[in-house]
Amino acid sequence: MATALMREAQRLLAEARRRTGTASPLLEQLRQDPALVMTRAGLAPDAWQRTALSSRSSRVLWLASRQSGKSTTAAALAVREALLVPRSLTLLLSPTQRQSSELFRKVMDLFGALSRPVGVLAESVLRIELDNGSRVVSLPGVEATVRCYSGVGLLVIDEAARVADPLYRAVRPMLATSRGRLVCISSAWAKQGWFFEAWGTGAGWERVKVTASECPRISPEFLEEEREALGPRWYAMEYLCEFGDAVDAVFRGEDIAAMLDTDVEPLFVG
Asked: Rounded to whole angstroms, what are the CA distances from 219 to 89, 131, 196, 223?
């Protein structure tokens, strides 16, 4: 009951501000300092996080180590978009609904740390609609069920290297009329798929790379332990941002390359 009353009070306060033209001072502070979304939550943004939050590039790839803070940074982007761009639509897409829900939970944690400066009209474990008309929605990684959205202001694709090509192609048109932002975040995975291709040769992308050694919250001792436990192939993918061979590959790419010799003359020329 107390929570419901508090939300109603916040909604009424936001409505009063809108009618009188009085904006929350916090919103203006967020415009001036994009990292404030994190610092108000007691988080100390790394240099790359501050840069990423300040970027206005429309197409962004973040290739980052596990536990480097990429999901939290994406959540901060979503919160700032919803608060500062009235009637905006932000979609959070992951390979599974559970992953999308976890990202949405980070959004709600950061929103709460800001003391909910805008009233809430509707809220669930999968979506929130603010009094300013903005919405943040978490989606499952199912191509057939995500086609209904349009006019998207910010589309975040989490664990993007594991999002299937058909799903990626199905969501891009959501940005057609809005000219919204596409932010794709992931640790490295196999040398296949749209994210791998976009990172290597795709045009028009801003690229951000963050290895585990660049994250002050991950100790060298832990990384050494992981290197021993995972082996070089998995360690490189999880922590060094290095794409590896497909998990189901019979032979490693370097082994196949070692079998080839360009100096051998062909037996037949035709």
From this structure: 38, 42, 28, 6
